[in-house]
Write a structure and sequence with these properties.
mainly alpha, single chain, 4 strands
Length: 375
Amino acid sequence: MNPVLDTARTDTQTDHVALLMDSMDATKDSTARAAQDTMLTPRFYTTDFKAMDALDVTPVRAEWDKMMAEYEGDNNQDHFKRDAAFAEELKVLVPQLSPELRKEFLDFLISSCTSEFSGCILYNEIRKNISNPDIKQLMAYMARDESRHAGFINQSLKDFGLGIDLGALRKTKAYTYFKPKYIFYATYLSEKIGYARYITIFRQLERHPDKRFHPIFRWFERWCNDEFRHGESFALMMRAQPHLLTGVNKLWIRFFILAVYATMYVRDHTRPMLHEAMGFESTEYDYAVFRITSDICRQVFPVEVDIDHPVFRRCMDRLLAISLENDRARERGGMVGAVQRASCAVRAFFTFGRLYLVPVIQRELPKDIRLEPVW
């Protein structure tokens, strides 16, 4: 019996237990952050499965079959794997991150992982609850893609000692019910703006590789092509149900475009260090993404938000200021904080109403529905 060795062994075991406990606590913390439901966090959705089952894609059959062949080809099946270069870059780059940049980057990863997993859950639940072969097959393919994306991001979170317990998140996060047409509008925009965000970052870091502070960015081009194809799927479903793009539904389309843009604008301005590290300014980055998204949405939406209208820009800045004021009120707490938050809610409502009244641009829908990700 060697008391020195036994003591060392005990200390090592204690260290391992401490590390394990720290890792479990970090996972609980990141899972709790992902489970939060605020105006700026990704949500989980459910819908009317019977209505989804009744969808008919016959009017777009030629484009639909071509798209399904692309899904079946699965050209990204080997993409979401970390190579040796990833590990080497990780060792060099991550220790260089400042605490402020690390915090904003992890927030970005948690939000992105939650968003991808949200899509995976929605598509998988639709698949399980319908019998329509066209929609069932599509949802299986899209759930496959989103699962890969969420898992790949989660791996990078674990590099920082975090990671999201996706199984626990699925059980604990609240679900929001949306009618199928709202799912179409919101999810189409989510997928297309996701493409625009990722491709804007990828192109920037392609031009300025010295600003690529994490290896995950090298995966963004093919990754966002998955997002682009998902958006194409919803475009075809909407064009196959033309009543979703006319009459009062134009007002809903307008609402969802503005809601998605405003949410992104406010959220992105809470991460100034992240954008600065990539060579962006947050406002510049957001309007570049808005412009790409607006260009793409002409394939299916008959109205386009005028992002260059001065009132649009003033309202965006006003919503950001109100959001920051609301955060300060939340931190303050108490009766005064509650009154301030109520005031913020009222002002945000009227500011969004003014934003909604900005004249939109009317668009003729193109004959050819499908687009190529050429941005």
